[in-house]
Amino acid sequence: MSLSLRPLVGIGVIVVYPSRYPEHVLVSERLSSHGKGCYQLPGGHLEYGESFEECAQRELKEETNLDSSSFKLVHVTNTIFSQEDGQSKHYVTLFMKTIINDDSALKCVEPHKNSNWIWIKWKNLNQMKLFAPLQQAVNNSNFNPFITDNI
To answer: Which of 3, 14, 28, 89 is a Cys-bridge partner for 81, taking CB atoms 3.0 to 4.6 Å apart?
Structure first.
């Protein structure tokens, strides 16, 4: 039997809090899985039957304890990860932007998967070791989540 490999769909949530942290995004360090040691946005896999917005809302809550109901698709990357344990991975990552006005509920809900969440200026992300899809987004000179239209 032949195995048919297909890309997986990931959702990365660009969380912004402009009144408190202008031009900052929420990131944490991956502690497990592929990309260990790299900084990431909140996010995860799109589940069967889920809309992009539902996935972004669910992953944001599961990972950061933050709630938001308004998301906008702002960028897409196509990433082929090098072989890990003899298997390469291919992800299409959809970046969904959300604006929050309160981060008092923010916490690291999955400390076995990632470090505490921190606010970092978008323009400073290129100084950090980033998860591959986020690195692609940051390296794309045509993309800046603070220049795109508001939600």
So the answer is: 89
